[in-house]
Design brief:
7 helices; LmbE-like_dom_sf; hydrolase activity, acting on carbon-nitrogen (but not peptide) bonds, in linear amides; 36% helix; GlcNAc_PI_deacetylase-related; N-acetylglucosaminyl deacetylase, LmbE family
């Protein structure tokens, strides 16, 4: 049983979008969980492992990050990761197609976990996926449908995005330090981590969320 379940497509999404929320929820006495729908096999390797070993390496990275974030429940499913962006060679054996977008059965897999874990809140990407990544968009759609009648959905959103911010978490120093440590575990995706730091440094210490059905802005958590 968990109180807050983060549902995302790839290992590392949990630390980017919700690392601070996971830490502060745990500090408040909530039980937390992370469910990734893929193992990120279409990401970069940066020469740190053979392409065919990337899913297992990213799973190990996820486990280390989850331990730092104090996660109580962790599971990584094996739905296919959408092919990488142009200019990045797909790993040998990577699935073709549109990744999660081609697998609506992921919705049922999420709902099965929700029935077993009974979270009060499901935290996931907003409908636009923040950056339009097809796996982000699909994960948001599946999580929203799966949570109907079971849990309250919360999106992690951009401060200036199409959905209004209803809750803003400003991380204390200890939480920021641990979030950075969690991000640093995703070594194969270091270029993505650095790009995020360059473009959105303020989102490292300030996380913004949209609680479905809420209005106005609250400084602090939704739980």
């Amino acid at each position: 049983m968990v109180d807050l379940l983060v549902v995302v497509p790839h290992p590392d999404d949990e630390s980017f979008g919700a690392g601070g929320a996971l830490l502060l929820a745990k500090e408040a006495g909530l039980r937390t969980g992370v469910l990734t729908l893929t193992r990120g096999e279409a990401g970069r390797t940066l020469g740190l492992c053979p392409p065919e070993a990337l899913p297992e390496v990213r799973l190990q990275e996820l486990r280390r990050a989850a331990e730092i974030l104090g996660v109580d429940y962790l599971e990584a499913l094996s739905f296919p990761n959408a092919l990488p962006q142009e200019g990045v060679e797909a790993p040998r054996g990577a699935a073709t197609g549109r990744g999660l977008s081609d697998h609506p059965e992921a919705e049922g897999a999420i709902r099965e976990r929700l029935l077993a874990l009974r979270p009060r809140f499901v935290l996931t990407f907003p409908p636009d996926g923040i950056n339009g990544h097809p796996d982000h968009v699909a994960a948001s759609r599946y999580a929203l449908k799966a949570a109907q009648g079971l849990a309250q959905v919360v999106y992690f959103v951009r401060p200036e995005g199409p959905l209004p911010v209803t809750h803003r978490l400003r991380l204390p120093e200890w939480a920021l330090a641990r979030k950075l440590q969690a991000l640093a575990q995703h070594k194969t995706q270091a270029l993505s981590v650095l790009a995020f730091m360059e473009r959105h440094p303020q989102r490292l210490w300030t996380e913004t969320f949209h609680l479905l059905g809420a209005s106005g802005l609250r400084e602090g958590p939704w739980w």
